[in-house]
Amino acid sequence: MDSFLIRGGNRLKGKVEISGSKNSALPIVAATLLAEGKTTLHGVPRLSDIDSMTKLVGELGCHIYRNEPRTKTVGDGPDLNGPLDIEVMDEKKSEARYDIVKTMRASICVLGPLLAKRGKATVSIPGGCSIGDRPVDLHVRGLQKLGAEFRTEGGNIVGTVRGRLKGCRMYLGGAQGPTVLGTINVMCAAALAEGETVLVGAACEPEVTDCAEMLIKMGAKIKGHGTPEIRIEGVDKLVGCEHRIIPDRIECGTFIMAAAITNGELELKHCNVDHLIAVMDRLDEVGVKCERTEGGVVVSANRRLSPIEMVTQPFPGFPTDLQAQLMALLCLADGISVVTERIFPDRFLHVGELNRMGARIRKEGPTAIIQGVKELQGASVMASDLRASAALVMAGMVAKGTTRIDRVYHIDRGYEKIEQKLAAVGADIERVKEAKAVA
Ligand code: EPZ
To answer: What separation in Å is there between the alpha carbon of 147 and the centre of ligand 1?
Structure first.
């Protein structure tokens, strides 16, 4: 297992190219199960989670091919990772095995497409998650309203459809508000259902919109995506298309805060700042300046960071996936900040690790109170989940001395070549085998 060794103190300076969105590519790859013929996806990042999803749809009868990188502009940009071709060759299989689902919860996204296209699906129930309770009851309830029947058996959700799914009007919200992947799962199924489906209380995240845009290119009839009410007129058939994945707004937000915590200056390219309005609003109050550029943003920060209050919310509010990174930044603010986590109330495993680096954070239920400190110290810390590990990398870049972060496989799930991108703009970071001690 790899670790990162980070020697703190360098200001980040330079340009970073933001990758395609992990959280958009995952459900989109699953949605290609709906189509006949080949789908070509541009801008799919190279990440372990993407490998798991392509392995899963491969097991479900798809031929997957990653083409050579294209440096020249294709459509609206180059494709440094090479377009990904996905073609359904065999529709006999309909099971998503535990071994894959346990590594990646987004596997649940094959449930809707399989039921709509093959009339049956067996998907292992995703287990526990380090960021907290993550049931899939809203996915099942939404698909049941379209006519699917379900039972659980041996740790699996087993779904069947008699004849064809039927559209209807439904409310899809839960106790913590809308569900992102639940909205996408039901929207995909409704695209091939009989009649109209109206999803009320739908998630508005850009990843939902991106998937809807691709389905429309496949021939789907969808309106209202990006709003809390999505209308889907079912069609008989969907065919393969060519689609570019949106930039990763969470990677972009992470780099904005990495620039700020090192008092650096970065130009981020290939990102859509309209997907980060609430983030930039909060950061402005902290003292982080974000200036739009053509297809990107330039970030700089005041040396003195101001404390703030922030509550995570569904899009367009402040995303839960940037909560840990913001907390790392606020560890160095001049005063007391309050961060409340409304989406995953237990998502605070980074608190203990940041406190090991000299931060002063106290947790009270879904709220963390952060007393700003003058500096952080390098230490050995443990990554617990994807975004927590990004926060530890940020803290390591500003801490006095050396920080070692173990279990960085968590970060490889969602950040493409992060240590290379950071080193290219001045960070002193290296990937080492876990055994190597701090010098
Ligand atoms: C997506 O997860 C993202 N994952 C998460 O990012 C992100 O944190 C989350 O949306 C919220 O923005 C991917 O896109 C792969 P939800 P998802 O269903 O769709 C509750 C990362 O770091 N809920 O919108 O699974 C749930 O417990 C990951 O990249 C139910 O109660 O999240 C939560 O409290 C982590 N029943 C809330 O809704 C359900 O059936 C929102 O979850 C589904 C969800």
So the answer is: 24
Spell out the residues 6+ positions from residue 287 whose beta carbon is closer than 8 angstroms to its own: 260, 301, 302, 304, 305, 306
Please indicate whether residue 129 is annotated as part of the active site.
yes
Assess whether the C-beta atom of 42 lies below 6 angstroms from ligand 1. Answer: no
C-alpha 104 chain-centroid distance: 12
CA of 251 from ligand 1 middle (Å) equals 17
Ligand 1, residues 138, 254, 312, 343: which to mutate, most atoms within 8 A of Cβ?
Answer: 343
Place of tokens 């606020």: 330
pLDDT by residue for the chain (439 residues), tens only, comes to 899 999 999 999 999 999 999 999 999 999 999 999 999 999 999 999 999 999 999 999 999 999 877 665 545 556 768 899 999 999 999 999 999 888 899 999 999 999 999 999 999 998 778 898 899 999 999 999 999 999 999 999 999 999 999 999 999 999 999 999 999 999 999 999 999 999 999 999 999 999 999 999 999 999 999 999 999 999 999 999 999 999 999 999 999 999 999 999 999 999 999 999 999 999 999 999 999 998 899 999 877 899 999 999 999 999 999 999 999 999 999 999 999 999 999 999 999 999 999 999 999 999 999 999 999 999 999 999 999 999 999 999 999 999 999 999 999 999 999 999 999 999 999 999 866 555 4
Per the residue annotation, which of 109, 129, 168, 241 is the catalytic one? 129
296-301 β-sheet, strand order: 13-17, 265-269, 296-301, 288-293
Residue of the CA atom closest to atom 13 of ligand 1? 23
| Predicted structure pTM score | 0.96
